[in-house]
Amino acid sequence: MLSGRDMREPAPCSAHPAPRVRYAAPDTAPGDGTLAVLRFRTAPSPDDPRVLHVPFAPLGEAMDEYWEVEGPVTSGRDGGLRWARGGGWLFAAIDVLESDHGGPENAAAFAYEALSRRVSAGPERHVQRIWNYLGAINEGEGDDERYKHFCTGRIRGMGEVFAQGFPAASALGHHGNADLLQVYLLATDQTGTRVENPRQVSAWRYPRQYGRTPPSFARATMLPCDDVLAISGTAAVVGHASAHVGDIDAQLEETARNLDALLESAGLPAGFHARDPLKAYVRHAEHADTVRAFVENRWPGTPLLMVLGDVCRRELLVEIDGWRYR
Ligand code: 3EB
């Protein structure tokens, strides 16, 4: 935790109320206070800039993800970039074709440059949370793995808006158009608080064996009113090493220990509940039942959206991200 404040004693908050994130039946119409809708499907996104198609196939019940703010929300598009702002919050997203930029590194740099420009153009310049989805993420060996090229391009493209500290993030491999890199973010006009996990080496300090460019993300961000923790993709990483290679049950246990440790580090009570939407990215569809049963048993009543996706380390079978409301 990088803040000197004791987050167990929330101060009266003058910042904008955090977005309410929830899952709803597919194709529920966005309302006046809807900042973003994430739909997990591979068809092109519709015209409404707030509605983003995310190229993952759902496993089990298909749900859309809604971000609601105290509106009104205005929105627009600018080339491949779409944005919506309202209630003190900004959603921005970009779809980039790698073939237009000569590969994942330059595509990532381009995406981050465009998002950095958009974020610096308005008051909502504090990026709290960011998602990165690329195709064939584990293709290529050693330093040539596509994820590692992405990491190099990402830091190259990060402008001044990222200089105050990395946001919480997820980086996963999708199974849609392998040429498509998608990056979307949530920002606001006040700083949040980065939270690290004492069980894990901070990603930006990972040793050289994981690539030339360490991944640039924080484990979580406490949103400005200290009432919502935005949780990065969390997997069975202990220290800097992947644990329990090939063992889905043990990876799930380790992931849950990491999530518990992160909540504790943020000054939050343990556990997830009905208000805390979680997302699980599962590498092999045959593990879907195991993952769902684990989450239902460990955190009863917690909304879970599960998709088929590849963790950026090929030995990891599952990753969980989400939101924890105080
Ligand atoms: C890990 O703990 C797993 O590159 O943005 C998790 C979350 C992971 C975000 C990223 C990578 C990223 O290192 C991988």
Description:
This protein is an alpha+beta fold. The protein has one domain (2-26, 33-325): RutC-like (60s Ribosomal Protein L30, Chain: A), CATH 3.30.1330.40. It is built from four helices and 19 strands. The protein has helices at residues 104-120, 146-157, 248-265, 288-298; strands at 20-24, 34-40, 51-54, 64-68, 74-78, 81-86, 89-97, 126-135, 168-174, 180-188, 193-195, 220-222, 228-234, 237-238, 241-242, 278-282, 304-308, 310-311, 318-325. A seven-stranded mixed β-sheet has the order 5-6-7-10-8-9-18, covered by helices on one side. A six-stranded mixed β-sheet has the order 11-12-13-19-16-17, covered by helices on one side. Strand 5 (74-78) and strand 6 (81-86) form a beta hairpin. Helix 1 (104-120) packs parallel to helix 2 and helix 3 packs parallel to helix 4 (288-298). The chain is globular and about 45 Å long. Residues 1-5 have low confidence and may be disordered. Bound molecules: 3-(2-carboxyethyl)benzoic acid. Residues 132, 169-171, 203, 215, 217, 232-233, 235, 237, 312 line the site of 3-(2-carboxyethyl)benzoic acid. Residues 1-27 are annotated as: Disordered. InterPro entries: FkbO_Hyg5-like_N (IPR049368), RutC-like_sf (IPR035959). It comes from Luteibacter sahnii. This is Pteridine-dependent deoxygenase.
**What is the overall silhouette?**
globular
Task: Determine the number of helices (DSSP H or I, runs of at least 4 residues).
Answer: 4
By CATH, the topology is 60s Ribosomal Protein L30, Chain: A
Uncertain parts? 1-5
Bound molecules: 3-(2-carboxyethyl)benzoic acid
